[in-house]
Structure formats: C-alpha cells, structure tokens
Amino acid sequence: xxxxxxxxxxxxxxxxxxxxxxxxxxxxxxxxxxxxxxxxxxxxxxxxxxxxxxxxxxxxxxxxxxxxxxxxxxxxxxxxxxxxxxxxxxxxxxxxxxxxxxxxxxxxxxxxxxxxxxxxxxxxxxxxxxxxxxxxxxxxxxxxxxxxxxxxxxxxxxxx
Length: 160
Hints:
The chain is α/β, with parallel strands linked by helices. The protein is built from five helices and four strands.
C-alpha cells in the first residue's frame, strides 16, 4: 500500500471523493514512497489541441495520459530507480492526466451513468496508463480493464 496524491485545482470531484480515490489507488500501487499524479480538466478545444500536438491525432478525446516512468507495469515502484521524478515534497510523480469535461459529460449520458462515475473511470484509466498499462491488443485491454474495475470496485463503483 502506498500514499497516493493528486496535484490539481479542479473541483469536479468532492474532497471526500478525491480522498477515497487516492486511498483506492494507494491500495493498488506498491511503492516505497508517496506517489503523485497531476490532473487537469480541459475543454474540447484544448484536448483536441493536445491530442494533435502530442499524438498526431486531430480529434477530441476523453482522456490523455502523459506517463513519466518507464517499465513499471505490475511492479513495486522504488524511488531509487526514479530519482529525477521525485518532486520537492518527496512524492514520485508518475505523470499527468488530462480529462475533457464536455466529453465526460457526453459519455456519462451515453452510457447512462453519472458524470462523477465517468470522471472516476477516466481518472483511473489515466492512472493505469501512467502505471504502464495499455489497451492496444485485446489481451492488454482485458488486463487494463481488470485493474480499472478492481480500483473502481473498491470505491463501490460498478458497471450497470
């Protein structure tokens, strides 16, 4: 179990929801120091620009992740292996997550669940990318989905 922190000014999720999310993610990640991730929510225009500039894909998406660590998937994370990714507060920064608020609202409506549930899912999805998980192949997708569902289940958030 690790301490997990989110660096954000966003207020979409309540402090209580964010604390629960950090606890669930801390239970998932094994590390010898606190783990931190940056979270930003942006407009459709901004996420389209980021997607175009960083991935070469000129379209709106729901979430983008920018991992900072390599080769951490499924492993205990040791700060000694990533000394340049430790911030001034002693947290190991695993990356940044950017979520498009409008797209999250549209998807919540499309899937018939709450905006908060969609934000939780997108946030956890982004963290999984920062921890080395991906969904390029069907096998990878199934593995990543299992990890996401494990964290969401701990929060009491299940699929309908």
